[in-house]
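S.,

Sequence below, as promised.
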Amino acid sequence: MALSVGQKAGWGLADLGINVFVVVKQLLVFAFMTTYLGVPPAVAGVLTFSVLAFDVITDPLIGYLSDKTHSRFGRRYPWMFIGAVVQAVGIVGIFMVPDGMSWQANAAWVMAFFALATLGFTAVTIPYGAMAGEMTQDPQERSVMMAWRMGFASLGLLMAGAVVPALAGDTKAGFGMAVLYVSPIMVLAIWLSIAATRRAPRIATPTGLGLGDMLRLVLSNRRFTLLVVIYGVLTLGVALIAAGLQISALYLMVATGGPLAGLAAALGVFAALFAMFIVGSVLSQAFWVFAAARMGKLSALIFGMVIYTVVLAAIYMQLPADSISLMAILFIFAGFCNGAYQQLPWAMYPDLMDVTRDESGEAVEGAFAALWLFGQKVANAFAPLVLGLVLSIYGFQESSEGVVAQSDSALEALRWAVTLLPAIIMWGGIALLALAYRPRAKGVHDARAA
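The prediction came back faster than expected:
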């Protein structure tokens, strides 16, 4: 049965709420600790990385429990409903740091609420990702679902990446109040998604497999595990950009000349550039659906990532920015290419769920989603760790009072760490897609559509 437009759009709506936390953990936490809480960059990187240890336990456990859940609301919805609230409470707590504490106490406070928010995020995203394999088995329909998802995700990214910093006004207290304002929207988006998809096809019967058998079944799908690794490599490149973007806006993009100077003055340089990035991402969604239909999902993904690296090289050459307007154009192109990274792999991995379900007769979409998301979490955790170590090596100075003077070597390290280094990492992912994954997955992502 074909999904209605409301069901496809409704499924995508949840990602608006999910991506508020994605921006918080990738763009804001590291910069918040190093710029307003006095936490040294290397320590901030290690602490954000340490949350990964929490995910090692919670990801497979929630994936397993989600597949085993039996309720009149289905296997996925109870987790998403409660997880949305836990995620919101954790995010607000991250930025409500009391005044007058040492940097060590500040860091401990942030990490406690970061772990709570991560638990809520996991309880939402793993069941949510599993639904992509249950609602439909049509690859083209999945591409459309992912376009809706990334459209709403872009709004969530805009809310957290542009609206929150603009409301915060570059103050410690301002960030807490700004997140408090947007958190109800985050919860509401997830709850409305549950309501919109309640009549969509789903697999209500829990699997009879134990945790060990479930994980072995998922890992036996070699194409899936390879795609997890490759998407993790690509994610590391993207996450490095995200981790350093706010600091780069403060230290490398201070020029506000050109036609968009008014927008930068009103929102701040970071918020204005991030808004341009989201504009590019939103505009790209229909194009990547079209490209996937014409070229195949895999070829479209490779094409998008190659162009992405070219744009990053162009941004490197323009930094420090002489014109906010020229940088805004480059950020629109970067967002357009990022749309391929956001949409296409998420449309590919449910196709591999189908292979295992057809061969084994077991519906373990939660376990698939857990491993899929865990690969991305590993990359997202490594990114601030790598960035923090790079900046520390080159003498970048932490602060509790906002922008401070930095050495030329520290600024140059920041410049290449958010542009050329991510591009090199992305080329590693591109090579793996073309040389390792393509021969093994030939026809998998397009045969059903035919």
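The chain is about 80% helix and 0% strand.

Coffee later?
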